[in-house]
Amino acid sequence: AGSGAGADMRTEISTAAAFVTRLLRAAGGVGEEQLRCFHECLQEAMREHYKHHWFPLVPSKGSGYRCIRINHKMDPLVGKAAGMIGLSHERLFQLLPSELTLWVDPFEVSYRIGEDGSICVLYESPQPGGKAAKQLESRTSCKEEWRIGRSSPSKSYNMMTVSS
């Protein structure tokens, strides 16, 4: 059930890459041409990295693998894209938040700045099958309880087991 996974994740990946690019632009000192190249390189690196780790039927599966993380260590995908435009890890640490977590999951892209920050949703689309309608109405765009929910497998996890 993993057909056409590449096409399905385009919106999520471009949303996430645009977000990191916006953070770099806001910090200043990086030219537009470099930013455009960074955005492209990051999308490419993410597409390659997530290719076999994208499960629209079980969106939480592989979430940790797809998570982009800057926390005293530079995320390898961000570091790779920055390297393509000649930005060192040191320079990236100056430009980007020192604590950034970006979750890129099917149907949802969200981020948190700082270890105790709220989680903010950048992109959200209802899952096919209509199960999402109830979840969406109870959800605010930046919420605390979600951080707790992230550490344990989500409830939809138990509904189906996908054997490959």
From TrEMBL:
SUPFAM superfamilies documented for this protein: BTG domain-like (SSF160696)
PROSITE patterns (alphabetical): BTG_2
GO BP annotations, alphabetical order: negative regulation of cell population proliferation
A Pfam family: BTG
Domain Anti-proliferative protein: 96-115
Entry's Gene Ontology cellular component terms: cytoplasm; nucleus
Coiled coil start-end: none
Protein family membership: Belongs to the BTG family.
Protein name from the UniProt record: BTG1 protein
Organismal lineage: Eukaryota, Metazoa, Chordata, Craniata, Vertebrata
Record gene name: Btg1_0
